[in-house]
Write a structure and sequence with these properties.
The chain has about 230 residues and is α/β, with parallel strands linked by helices. It has 8 helices and 12 strands. A hairpin with a 4-residue loop joins strand 7 and strand 8. Helix 2 packs parallel to helix 3 and helix 6 crosses helix 7.
């Protein structure tokens, strides 16, 4: 069963999302506040596969809720639902751990497509028998079975999106990958968003893997093109 949490204070939108996402196969639990969502998540961090979080919530904001959920669960897919169209808000949502964002007013078909895409990323399982279970690059080890990245034998917490970007880099060491290729491989070719989502996730990854994120030596920018992984 595909398990989905909806956190939205407007009843009409909450009801609309519940009805339509239930129709396409999701088991939806909808709440009106971040406080109620946190009660559920704290008691059962692995209860949901995907969460849709409104940003403008009474009390605790959707931004803070996203951060607190992400600290509890690195695997859950998170989509931010916002009436804000300001670029800094979108960047902030991605920087704190969201996988995607949807701006109100939204198309139901687009939203469902994005939820499906995020859900599929949570289903990535262990490698097949014939595939390598570990990818090694310098002092980094990417364990494909446990979905874990280690640097100098120390585990790094990655979201599913971040892990998939690292897997793409490890399988293409030294190769310059353009943003469109990264987006297509990680978010899927039907993704509705723009390539800026790649840049935000790269910045977040650098904070985790680089000794000096302001002077990266592993995730190198290829100006006007994309990124290259080196050691």
């Amino acid at each position: 069963m595909k398990r989905l949490l909806v956190v939205e204070d407007e009843y009409a939108i909450r009801d609309l999302l519940t009805l339509n996402l239930t129709k396409v196969g999701y088991m939806v639990e909808a709440v009106e506040s971040a406080e109620r969502a946190l009660e559920i998540i704290i008691n059962d961090p692995d209860r949901f596969d995907v969460a849709i979080l409104d940003i403008m919530l009474p009390g605790i904001s959707g931004f803070e809720l996203c951060e607190r959920i992400r600290r509890k669960n690195q695997v859950i897919g998170i989509i931010m639902l916002t009436a804000r169209t300001m670029e800094p808000d979108k960047v902030r949502a991605l920087a704190i751990g969201a996988d995607d964002y949807v701006t109100k007013p939204f198309s139901l078909n687009e939203l469902i497509a994005r939820v499906d895409a995020v859900y599929r990323r949570t289903l990535v399982g262990p490698p097949r028998q014939s595939e390598a279970k570990e990818l090694i690059c310098g002092n980094f080890v990417l364990d494909l079975s446990s979905r874990l990245l280690k640097k100098n034998d120390q585990p790094l917490d990655l979201t599913q999106v971040e892990f998939q970007i690292m897997e793409l880099f490890f399988k293409n060491q030294g190769v310059a990958l353009d943003r469109e290729t990264i987006m297509g491989k990680v978010w899927g070719t039907s993704y509705y968003g723009d390539v800026k989502i790649v840049d935000v996730n790269i910045r977040r990854l650098r904070m985790k893997v680089e000794d000096d994120p302001s002077n990266p030596v592993n995730i190198v920018t290829v100006w006007g093109y994309g990124y290259r992984w080196t050691t």
